[in-house]
Amino acid sequence: MHGLETLSSETALLTALRCGDEDAFSALVDAYGAAMHRVALTFVRSSAVADEVVQEAWLGALRGLDRFEGRSTLRTWLLRIVANIARTHAVREARTVPFSSLELARESAEHEPALPADRFQGPDERHPCRWVSFPMPWSAEPDSALLSAETRKLIADTIADLPDGQRIVISLRDVEGWDSAEVCSVLELSETNQRVLLHRARSKVRAALERYLTTESP
Amino acid sequence: MNNEFSCQEMIEVVTKYLDDALPPDERQRFERHLSYCTGCGTYVDQMRETIRQTSMVPREESLPPALRQEIVAQFRTWKRH
Q1: A138 vs A101: CA distance, rounded Å
Q2: ipTM field
Q3: What mean pLDDT is predicted for residues A31-36?
Q4: CA pair distance B3, B27, nearest whole angstrom
Q5: Which residues of chain A have a CB within 8 Å of the CB of B5?
Q6: Which of B46, B72, B76 comes nearest A206 by C-beta?
């Protein structure tokens, strides 16, 4: 996944880039370009705008090369640049929701339970706050719907409908597979707020899978 | 004071648990609850399966060739300055 192992180190790569070495630049684009494009798409959704964002990000990176001090990895640095530019574009596109870390923090502060309260026994029932009935286990059979492309499509659609903060965080954490520190760094979010958004997003995806897997007849 | 997590609390801390971010005492309470509660066991399994399924959502693996070309062309222009 990280195509840069062939280059002995980021320092060598940076030196080559600063000297205008096109092969080094191409290697960098091949290693991180697709991930940057996907991040841009997560923020702006229109592929034409995402293309612009990515081009602008590479230009910004080239201009900022001399200021790159290696405090993060080159990958994180590039992703942060693309996320910042994408955020600016998303706001400019007059999408109503601003993408500032403040807004994301606000979104994470709203109270929203992972499951409706009626899945649990009320205060006057026999076992308050315990399950009314257990969730049904999902089949792990080879012909299970879990293995189908339709299930993946359902997940992608569910993610696309999430509020911005949740959508961005689950895309980066669970689709892209970034770790929590990287997501916090790129989105300038605290670990707690990041996890709240991830938790909401995952809980909703799980609920969508539950509805799909337990209502469908085989 | 009742020191146990309720089922309703379990499903709210599961992400913290899976991120290995629960303080040791809460982690212990979480695992103790799991040891006797089938419903929460199923729920945690489903969260793990959800993460696994989400990681398999198809993604674009390389840049569209035209875009890649433009980026490299941009590099050549930048180099000349």
Answers
A1: 36
A2: 0.90
A3: 94
A4: 12
A5: none
A6: B46
